[in-house]
Write a structure and sequence with these properties.
With 331 residues, the chain is of the alpha/beta class. The protein has 2 domains: 166 residues, Rossmann fold; 146 residues, 3-Layer(aba) Sandwich (Rossmann fold). α2 crosses α3. α9 links the parallel β7 and β8. The strands form 2 sheets. It has a 6-stranded mixed β-sheet with strand order 8-7-9-6-5-10, with helices on both faces. It has a 5-stranded parallel β-sheet with strand order 3-2-1-4-11, with helices on both faces. The chain is 45% helix and 16% strand. The protein binds coenzyme A (COA). Coenzyme A (COA) binds next to α7.
Length: 331
């Protein structure tokens, strides 16, 4: 069973309510019909009933029995506005601002999750990453034990000798452009947690990546990785982790043994922490495009699960992301 098949089986075992703010978008409506039919989640489509129906007709999607809510006319929007005002008043948001913001489906959806009216949110078929991330960061906020929100990419590689039966977890590839050493340590801990809870890894083995292996090169940027490793050790003493390691030393057993002898993870790492967003984003795309890996992205560190799609996403991508969000909501 592939990783995503396992995730879908888990999503079905305890169905969660996932709100889709882009409810009048054709791929989203089609995905909602599949999610409902396959029992993967209880989707809620946001948007005007006419537009949702028009999108469903165009997509040939049966949305019978799927809940819809229109932020423009919803009576509960006033409650969400009060709650939003309380959360953001110290940041200069007025009651009038809050009343206006909750009519925006993205904010309405985020408030549904915040208030527990939904278990999670997926968007991004139309909006950018920042459009969803900003309100999620402002309103849902970071888990108390986490310093930052970041992302993990689950890379299902054709070479099954890599990582965990071909599955590698990469972080961060979406959120933090220039993480500090402390932020890198938290990204690593969050990625190990994602590996355990979402991917079912029994033993996350975390490698902090660099162009240097265990002091082979000297540079300020290498020092930062070494500091991150030391901090991660302090914060999570039971987690198997090491660095700094080059990519090959992290995942190829013979190279790990020669470049980092005695390392607890070198050569067999299954969670790979990139030094910054440039490296992480480029790295996952190389693995996907040249390495032929299937890739699935999730955000981590938020108090409640919200996930982002690529604007070029397929219906299947939306279904998969909702299933992963539902599993994140179970834990
Ligand atoms: C995540 C991102 C949207 C935040 O944008 P930003 O302009 O820094 O937002 P702000 O500075 O206004 O921050 C908004 C709030 O989120 C918080 N925040 C920002 N980044 C955060 C993070 N990674 N974790 C937790 N909180 C964060 C800020 O502290 C702020 O909180 P406050 O308003 O309560 O004080 C921005 O870092 C970003 O665009 N990242 C890259 C995303 C991207 O384009 N990826 C492309 C790859 S697909």
């Amino acid at each position: 069973m592939s990783m995503i098949e396992k995730v879908k089986a888990k999503a079905k075992s305890d169905i969660k309510k996932i709100v889709l703010p882009e409810g009048d978008e054709e791929r989203t409506v089609k995905a909602a019909s599949i999610l409902k039919a396959e029992g993967l989640a209880e989707p809620v489509l946001l948007g005007s009933p006419e537009k949702i129906k028009a999108a469903a007709d165009k997509a040939g999607a049966d949305i019978t029995g799927i809940a819809t809510e229109d932020p423009e006319t919803s009576p509960i929007a006033a409650e969400y506005a009060d709650a939003l005002y309380e959360i953001r008043k110290n940041k200069g948001v007025t009651p009038e601002d809050a009343a206006k913001l909750v009519r925006d489906p993205m904010y309405y959806g985020i408030m549904m999750v915040k208030t527990g009216d939904a278990d999670g949110l997926v968007s991004g078929a139309v909006h950018t990453t920042g459009d969803m991330l900003r309100p999620a960061l402002q309103i849902i906020k970071t888990k108390p034990e986490m310093k930052v929100v970041s992302s993990s990419f689950l890379m299902d590689c054709p070479n099954k000798s890599l990582g965990e039966d071909g599955l590698l977890v990469y972080a961060d590839c979406v959120v933090m452009p220039a993480p500090t050493a402390e932020e890198l340590a938290y990204i690593a801990i969050a990625a190990a947690d994602t590996a355990k809870r979402l991917c079912g890894f029994t033993e996350p083995r975390v490698a902090f990546l660099s162009f240097s292996s265990k002091g082979s090169a000297k540079h300020d940027s290498v020092n930062k990785i070494q500091q991150a490793v030391a901090l991660a050790h302090e914060l999570a003493p039971d987690l198997l982790l090491d660095g700094e390691l080059q990519y090959d030393a992290a995942i190829v057993p013979e190279i790990g043994a020669s470049k980092a002898p005695g390392s607890p993870v070198a050569g067999r790492a299954n969670v790979l922490i990139f030094p910054d967003l440039q490296a992480g984003n480029i790295g996952y795309k190389i693995t996907q495009r040249v390495g032929g890996a299937d890739c699935f992205a999730v955000l981590q560190g938020l108090n409640m699960p919200c996930n982002d799609l690529s604007r070029g996403c397929s219906v299947e991508d939306i279904v998969n992301t909702v299933a992963m969000t539902a599993v994140q909501a179970q834990i």
